[in-house]
Design a protein that fits this description.
Layout: E1 3-9, E2 22-23, E3 49-57, E4 70-73, E5 85-91, E6 100-109, E7 127-130, E8 136-137, E9 139-145, E10 148-158, E11 166-171, H1 182-185, E12 190-194, E13 219-221, E14 228-230, E15 235-240, E16 245-248, E17 259-267, E18 280-283, E19 291-296, E20 301-307, E21 310-315, E22 327-334, E23 337-342, E24 345-351, E25 363-365, E26 367-368, E27 372-373, E28 375-384, H2 390-400, E29 405-407, E30 411-412, E31 430-431, E32 439-444, E33 457-463, E34 476-477, E35 488-489, E36 492-493, E37 503-509
Length: 511
Amino acid sequence: MVKPLKKIDPVPITGANWASAIQVTGEPVPLIAGSSQTFNITGLNPSTTYYFALKTADELSNWSTISNSANGTTATPWWDAGWTARSKLTLNTTGIVSNLTGFPVLVHLTPDNFNFNYVQADGGDLRFISSDNAVVLDYEIEKWAPTEAWVWVRIPTLRGNSSTDCIWIYYGNPAAADGWNPQAVWDTNYQMAQHLKETSINGSAGAIKDSTQYGNNGTFFGMNSSSLASGRINGAFAFNGTGDYVSIPDNDDWASGNFTISMWVKANSWSGNWWTRAFAAQDEGGGFKNKWILTYSGASTLLHINTPGGGASVGGNAWTALPDTWYYLAITRSGNTYTFYRNGLPDGSATNTFTIPNAAAPLTIGRGEGSGSFNGTIDEVRISNSARSADWMKASYLSDTGALISFSAAETTAPPPLDNIPPSAITNLAAGTPTAASIALTWTAPGDDGNTGTAALYDIRFLTSPLTEAKRESAIRLNRRTAAPACRQYPEVNRYRPGWQYHLLLRSKDG
């Protein structure tokens, strides 16, 4: 007679913890050697990883050594049946030692990790849920587009050195009300979180919106449509180095006491003096006036401080900044100690007792020393009234670069609703060299959903006067054509009269 003995534990089972592992009851009778056996263990907790091991004995109670330790994770029950799709987002904090409270994590959604056909057009039915289904997490949508989105989610406790902790993203509820709560994402220590995400230049005061509860909104100065650039995260502001900047009203909390200032920067050129490379500043003008300026000295990240009675400069480790390269730069102050960070890692520290003055001046992004202007792009400017830890800065870098989160395959409980994402508009329709009775058209094919997939049909129309959407129905329609993905199309129109000027319009339709 051979008898098995199975045990279960929440950690890998070894000889050291075999005696303390939970013994399973009702084990099956062993089969003849070489047979395959199965056994279902019930009564486990959901969303929990268990480790299993077993020994076997013969009829004389001669026991084998411990088997290998197998493991499995029980499924997570569906949070709410009203939502028809979900994915697990695993948080990898390997190398981050401490737990971080109220940490904002970036979730970048693309067709590779998210099914946009299930979600409402503005993402309002998104819900982020803790791994135990107990907590609905606050989130902010920085930007929502038909096939791409940037969302910030507040994690109540981001545990250090974990590769298994997770949250869930639920979607697919057409009846759900909007669920976002932007201000709750950023803890009370954040005095400002400027995504610099605006998509148009609005000269009104406060048009550049702060996401925190404090409403430290900014105003464009000297900027135009060319100032709206692609950022490290979504959009950003490009500064031309000749006087354009963002101005945010004076606040005593900008650099008083302990603080953290962080941002992404990419310079077109690092030439010039240190004050022409200013990322952010609060200064009353050139010379020995009250001010502080965060900049690149030409050799290191630098905080320059001035008062009418003198000044001081505090810098980090030496490093060479390259043009057209994104850097995540930060400085923290704790007491008289200043610590610099570059791409999430400590980059030198210094002690200085010089008092940072309370400058009676606005905070400026992209300008310092009254007239020095940054030549490049700045994104995600955040200021806290606390010195964030080294783990916080590392986690921020990993989050911003997409290295903190991995997506599981989507789970669904129902088919997707009807496709509500149209193909992208065609913007490069061009008429080629004509013959007496034909003109060849060229354009780039869009996708089924935006620029993803393959559209189903084209609707090509023409008139002898400029075409608009209002005139579309009166225009002459050509035969419908099928679309090919992401390539140039070359249909030829053969219904023209010699010498006439024609105007053409093209639409595409998905399946």
